Amino acid sequence: MSGQGKFEQLVVASQEIAASTAQLVVASRVKANRDSKNMSALSQASKGVTQATGGVVATAKACGQMIEENGNVHALFHNVCACVCTLVYVDVRKN
What we know:
Blueprint: H1 2-31, H2 37-70, H3 73-94
Helix pairs in contact: 1-2, 2-3
């Protein structure tokens, strides 16, 4: 159960990053020119942050659930590493 707390902290931190980024975009829209290239770039970057944090949240929840179901962190280490490596590979392939 001690491992579960770390994953929950990761989920909360990721959600805070996504919320802060969204808040930055909204505040920037108020001041930016409607046709601003910088605003467009910021919006695109914000979408990337949202996707990335969504992936982190999904992975953390899945890993936390695996640990909760099996109760043995060490036995699951290999599976978690494979999961993370897959996510990194998919992210690299997208970019």
